[in-house]
What we know:
Elements: E1 32-35, H1 42-54, E2 58-60, E3 69-72, H2 77-86, E4 95-98, H3 99-108, H4 122-126, H5 130-136, H6 139-143, H7 154-162, H8 168-174, H9 180-187, H10 189-192, H11 198-215
Parallel strand pairs: 1-2, 1-3, 3-4
Amino acid sequence: xxxxxxxxxxxxxxxxxxxxxxxxxxxxxxxxxxxxxxxxxxxxxxxxxxxxxxxxxxxxxxxxxxxxxxxxxxxxxxxxxxxxxxxxxxxxxxxxxxxxxxxxxxxxxxxxxxxxxxxxxxxxxxxxxxxxxxxxxxxxxxxxxxxxxxxxxxxxxxxxxxxxxxxxxxxxxxxxxxxxxxxxxxxxxxxxxxxxxxxxxxxxxxxxxxxxxxxxxxxxxxxxxxxxx
Length: 229
């Protein structure tokens, strides 16, 4: 009787190791994944881990200091954070993400940007969004504050931001050379931003309807935007 060979066990505790015992090189050394088995299940976790490794991601079988992204499925933000706190550790906490981030990353073949929809119910549970707060502090968001004026595009607004002009008050005091449309927009900014009343909208609709009907009988004029809603 020929003795059977002992099956060689794969070392799933090492990152970058797939279930066949081979090693896939990590394409993204700054991203280390840990898939939380809770509610995901062992078999699905093993399948997703193998998929990620084949895509070049580094996946840890145990939570460690190296982990940068913890992927959860059907876990609330409160439960996920409670579990993470129970693991201890003094390092900054990793991203705590819904499995949607994982699937988006697998589809893209690379780690995608963490968006609000990837967070574990962050807005509902904390009332804040890290993505929104980060955007509000960005220079591009600040540039939007000087863009309500007519004929001011993103390039001009970005240049003004670099020159220290962050709002319309600073723009007025800066002595910037403006074209005719920009000067008019700055001069009448407060009036332009006054909301149009329903009565004013109805009056404008009547004028437009009369003008259109004079050249195109049977034409229908409908208010759109907020008044239609």
